[in-house]
Amino acid sequence: MNGARVEFRGLRRRFGSTVALDGLDLTVEPGELLALLGPSGCGKTTALRCLAGFEHPDEGEILVDGADITRVPANRRDAGMVFQSYSLFPNLNARDNVSFGMRVRKVPAAKRHARAQELLELVGLPSVGDRYPHQLSGGQQQRVALARALALEPRVLLLDEPLSALDAKVRVTLREEIRRLQLSLGITTIFVTHDQEEALSMADRVAVLRDGRLEQVADPATLYDRPATPFVAEFVGAMNHLPGLVSGDRVTVLGQTLPVEGRAPATAEADVLVRPEAVLVTPDSEGDGIVMVSSFRGSTARLRVRLGDGTEVLADVPGHDSARFAPGTAVRVGLVERPVLVSARSEPGAAAAVPEPDVV
Amino acid sequence: MRDSRTGSKSRWAAAPLLAFVVIVFGVPMLVLLGGTFTKEGTFSTANLTESLQGAYLTALLGSVKISALVAVLGAVLGTFLAQAVVTSRFRALREAVLTASGVLANFGGVPLAFAWIATLGNSGVVTTTLGLGDYGWSLYNFWGLTLVYLYFSIPLQVLTVVPALDGLRPQWREAAQNNGASTWQFWRYVGIPVLTPALLGGAVLLFGGAFSAYATAQAMVGSTVPLVTLKIADALTGNVLIGHENVALALSLDMIVVAGLVMAVYLPLQRRSARWLR
């Protein structure tokens, strides 16, 4: 299989008064796995459905290898799609589901069944060909759906939150398998997800969408370390917004002076953006911080620390150290010595740790 | 010990149902069998033989014919109407059609016959207004009766098949399109097979409804259209010949056999079409 270049050009789509896509410009390189990431209603699924042909944009165009496919019917597009869940045909067994596209194209039964078997083996399910969807687990169903999407050797693979209905362990296994398959087949893949961990761990590049617009597209490391906008910074990973004073290309925050990453804002007062893992916490009875909440996560524990001036800071400590940071423990808080992102203070005195649902 | 007590309680819990079945089905069945095989006080198959000859056989076949036609037409038209309702964007239309179907599916007997006679009978409002009589229109024949039966059969099919149509997931259609299928291919390979158990169930219900209908036909066509239910009534009341009560029972047994044959065709078909559900 050869991957195709996919281009979204000025894509707009409106549903009544809701703008789902607001001039989306995005290019996916051949053979690349691009994750479309964003909160619910950001337009990521709409973009994917426009590419699949299930939605038609009000404006803009979609090109695949330079050819405009914006008005091509869904059943004539060279794209395989895996849906969120429950998309296998219930009246067909796994083999017939996989070979459905070939049956439609009138491929002889023996040939299509052999090909279906090959694909089932490719997705690690060589012996489920005779089983109906309701006889398969959720993970198995999505593997069969993946095999079905690959059966016609499409040049673009579309994955619409295919793992969201699966339990955590199966999700991790399956996402690794999808990545392995994608790399071995070299197929251009667009993967819609609202799970940042999924996007960062699987994709070559991640495109973050917000209100139908592209906020940033970058490789996972860049996206995490150098978010282009405050929205990206907050959406991808947790981020502390700490009050700082900018002086030239340096900023003073929590009593430390650190170099500013990129351009410093014009105002002296600024928000300093710091990831929880860049916050150093040490138990100290003389420290001016108090651990308010400790959330154990296995390899790490996330602390919410309140400082003397009322500022709250999120900090990650190794999981095996979590016992030392029980709520109520007095701690000293510092920052890792490295350049930090600084943004103009959005609201004086409002800088604080970004709340996290699983910590608060 | 506890399990056996629970099991014993469960058995007793089913006793009222069993008693009901015995009284409502068992006793009449025994009476029916007894009467069918009794002629002038002795065991005989004469009633059964007579019920399968001449006018009685014509009536039985007439009932099967009209019931089969109503079942097929009602199932097809009802399914199309249900699909139109399910895919409609207007929620109010859906609610209105489903409510009307609920009422019309239970509209039968003499009131239904009168409604049609007053509308499309020889002196009906529509017949006289449009001068349909000049075109040879008559409600009082096989096709007229079929039309009237469809009036309650189509709504019944709508009620039966709407839940099944609602159960067709949009993802299936999209997945089929994504695999290159046209609309017809989606229906051929996925939609219709998934709906088949519900369609078959609906068709059997319609067949049963038309096969057992009596009052509407009696009020509308009398003996113009030969139907087994009308013949049973005639034989029981001595309307044509006296002393034929046991032939009526034999005709009833014929009806049970026909219903059994329908089920014998339906059940394997249903099992085959629903094998993916097990």
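qc> Chain B has a mean pLDDT of 88.
qc> done
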